[in-house]
Structure prediction request, 139 residues.
Amino acid sequence: MVSYTGCIGGCHSNYAPVPVSPPVVPGKTPEKIMKPAEEIKKEGAAPKEAKLIVDLPADAKLFIDDRPMQFTSQHPIFVTPGLQDGKTYYYDLRAEMMRDGKAVSDTKRVVFHAGDELRESFAGLERKTSDKVAAGITK
Prediction:
């Protein structure tokens, strides 16, 4: 689960994003996904953050891993805690909004690594309903 606290130039997570699990090999002990910061420092590699900018329609609600996010901009910035180099992580994003009295939503999986800066857009969510109306589709 991901929990965000406050926004100072972006929202910062208390927890690491959900790591992508490597396949389980019988007889082999799985490697730790996130090592403690002290262990990473001993190895000489400082943990790196990843940054995610999300573009949203004005009245959209955003959920990351099914948790509602608080933000004050149409382009909120989320920064992860320190991540281990060489590992792959992801967030499941969902944007929801009302259009013509009906709820519309879109879901995206964002895959990233330590040090990445990504931008994900839900601009198409705003067009979904207006495109249907323009085409004369009512359902």
About this structure: Residues 1-16, 18-25, 29-34 have pLDDT under 50 and may be disordered.
